[in-house]
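PT: before anyone asks, these are the final sequences, not the draft ones from last week. 560 residues across everything. Please model them as a single complex and drop the result in this thread when it's through.
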Amino acid sequence: MQWDGSAIKIRADAQGLSLSELARRIGVSRQAVNDWIGGQIPKGLFLITLCDILKFDPDELFIKEPEESVQVLVYRSKRKSPVNPGQEEQMKELAIRYKRLFPMTGPTTLRPTLTVSDFSEENAKIIATKLRQMGSVPEAIPLDYFHAFQLLRVLDIHVIFTEFPVSKLYAFYTCINNHRVVFVNIKTNLLDLIFPLLNETVHSIIRNNKSMLVEDAEEDFCDTVASYTQFPDVYINKIYDMIQTVKPGNQINILKEYSRNNHHAICGVVERIKKLDPDFDLKYGGSDTNLRKEFRLFENILHESDSVRQYLQSYRRLSPLFIDLVLAQVDDLSSRIIGEIFSLENYSDMESLKDELRQVKSLEVAAGR
Amino acid sequence: MIMICDTCSVLMLIRIAPEMLCDPKYECVTIKAVYDELFKTPRFKFKYPWLARLEPKIKTLDISPNEKNLIEKNLKVIKCHVESAGIINTITGGPFNLSQTDKTIVAHAVCLNTSVSSVDHDLSAYLDQQYEIKVWEPLCLINHWLQNDIIIWDDSKQTVLENWVACQEARQTQKNIDKFEELTGREYPKY
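LR: through. Structure below.
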């Protein structure tokens, strides 16, 4: 935000108040008021009195600059519903809260990790194959959440787990000071997490930071890559072979079993089967809802026990780059700021986590890491 | 002199003076945001097991509707002020790292014209540099109570001080440590 004191004189004139009188009422010199008009930010004490006397909303005195160093890409939420500008702004504000952690000394520009010549299906398959190799995902099985986070680490993407102010949004990609960051909503059911996580990963690696405007073609391409990355053809073919000769009731049971065992929703598989067989039509919505009830929210995975050590270890296992970033700065962060970073509301939790972070840091420093 | 105690200050002092937020002679108050930080359901093993029995003693300030409006207005100004480029902590040379609770404490202190008790460096610096509000560290408050015969020092209180050290609570300034030793004739526990 930038201070703009030029409105002071206009407002004082409109109220029939001379600048000398204004200065007297605030308890400062006339020169001080001139300095504020000229661009010097008043001390907090005087600013509050100034706003009170001239009936200013602070937004009239502080100009929100376009935040170039933090850019968010929020396009669609659950079931491809578009995200409105207000929601996008809320997500951007969330990302800005973490800006202080990301050093300005990063790369001067963000370059795509993978070059995408076109948004074709074939290209999507090629990229998906590369991503599965990079994430060390065993062949023929769907990518699970652990491998998804491993892939993000390999791609040098920071992952931040927090609660989103916008519901029905599972993950979004952000560029902060030219660092790639993916935010994950901790209120997401594990079953719903992997696909959006992969979608955001694809956005992050094919983009530079010139613009965060995204079009349907890119979003659809990211969906396609995410689908092929999560479900290799061999897995889809195997399921399709099994279900195409059985009755719909049994089809659902088979799909449910595979989905349960491999931690994914039924819809992702059905959408891919429809590509093989456009006439394939199966009502599966209720089964997916029931299946979801068998899986936990992501926050329950992070907070599996009441041990702060275990929490930090779980977080670091999934997001090592971000925890390293916090560890490097932990001595400069108050317990409350740590609380905000990790979505903790109880002061005891904030203190415990800060203690644990400091302990981990000192052990690693002692070990020469 | 009325003092708004932040969360850390309450945690450090409430066992030494359980009536500090109930009896006006202590000149201490706290706010709802602090109460919430103390008693929201913890996710980790609770670091302060003794706190539950003292919950009835953690009274928060009664705020009139007019004061509430003013505090909300102040909070909005404070947020813009802290986030604006050019507001620099002259001690660190960097921006002030204040949480939402920190800003809420500032808004209350400015509106109600009170002092603040805290050990947070950024909060203390912001209050001092921008509002000329004096910030008292917990040991300074203890010394004030001792000087005014509001508390009498004994072994149980000394044990709490030793617990501060064991729990690695924020170090107190040497000036306040010297004063404490002079007032009580006891040695301040060593870190």
